[in-house]
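Lab notebook, bench 4. The sequencing result for the construct came back, and we need a structural model before the next group meeting so we can plan mutations. Quick request posted to the team channel:

Model the 3D structure of this chain.
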Amino acid sequence: MNIRVIELERLPAMGETLQTDAEIAPKTERLIHQVEAIRLTANVTLDESRRSQLGQFMTPSPVAQLMAAMFDDLGGDIHLLDAGAGVGSLTAALIENATTRKIPPRSITANTYELEPLLLSHLEKTTALCRETCKQANISFINRIRPLNFIEEATSILRGDLFSERIQPRFNRAILNPPYCKVNSASTVRKLLRSVGIETSNLYTAFVALAIKLLETDGELVAITPRSFCNGPYFKPFRELLLKEMSLTHIHIFHARNKAFKGDAVLQENIIFHAIKAKVASRVLISSSTCANDPNIVHRWIERHEVVNPADPDLFIHIATEENDAATTLRVRGLPCSLEDLNIKVSTGRVVDFRSRKFLRMEPEASTVPLIYPSHFKDGFISWPKLHGRKPNAIIEHASTTDLLVPSGMYVLVKRFSSKEERRRIVAAIYDPRRLRKEWVGFENHLNYFHVDGKGLTRNVAKGLALFLNSSIVDQYFRLFSGHTQVNAADLRSLRYPSIRQLKQLGNRIKNKIPDQERIDEIIEETVFSKLL
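Done. Here's the predicted structure in token form:
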């Protein structure tokens, strides 16, 4: 469906019509383009290595406009939080959008947090332009540039340490492009976050979590962040906070991972999401585009339970942009078993090669056992040894390596990282002990392995499991909740699986080689999903 961007920038309320391009264009160009020029000038002044280290990537104007348009209500008295404001692009975009609304705000108080000294003068220029725009629209404007550490001040407010201040900052709207940077578990930042009940391993989720806690009831949040918080064990506490305190109403996804911040060579897959505090939404709008100013934005409403399955203890967030995606989600969720039901476990390979270097050997020796890397995958099985390659083929069997090895048996291995050339995110292979004839084996840390209490699976179950994991429908489902190429053991635990009987039936269809993709999908359809109709 071809939809004008300006028509999708804000969804109309029931019975409301949006202004036309001609009605809003003069105002839009005046502020947004000037602030974009400020951003581009500031970009040149920042040290590239420092930007990458601190996760400083300022918001391009098309992205800022898309984000500002997601707010449901910009009327009344707006108390805005813009943490990690940069040059103020997001604040400017919100103000620009607010002046075009049928019901504009009476007043805007902008609280912009920015620590980078090189950006503060640029931020002052932006807020001066914002003040002039508000003046022309008869909107009262108060600006508070806060050259403070947002995490320090926010945690202090939440702990009640700032009672001595005459004016406590209040926020009913938050617009964020937070920094992306890992937080060390022993760092001061981590301790500050824990002091207010926030457990997270990255600055971007820390900023969003603090904004959520600081928002007033019915307050609105719009943020652009990496998609990585949608799944995985590290971000589960953040998902619990987000889904408990806020109601997701709109998620926008970019089809190309390098388009949102295309001028800054950011390859992290990003999403924009809108949420309202303490409001229960039964449906969520999912929109998608190649980039922020793509005129062909696709959007669809889906039920909330299709985004977050209430029965999922990990609270993974699924983003189905098309009807086929929703159908895939329902089919996979409808499978009968969890890994626990199957009495099967999945773990990460125990051999971290740089820590065990003195025990590794490029070629097998009398005192060694096989060491399996992703490079040993071939046609759905393990082909070992791979001589004259870059990786070792063996590890010495020694008292110091006992805990790194597992007894020989039928295992299903899954690559933790897939290469760009591979068609699927999940790539599985079978470790068949009859091909290697060794009592023990080591699985390198870049692999996940399926087992039964540390030992191998039965032959047909292992073959059937590998066939299932290599299917297109599992790949499609995985992409709906994971925005990166890494496959963690927790991701594999979150999947639903066929029954043991179905896995055995699948295993009977494999001999010495995994079939091609088309045949895999036919077998899965015939054996697994036709039984569910």
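The two ends are 31 Å apart (CA to CA).
Will bring this to the meeting.
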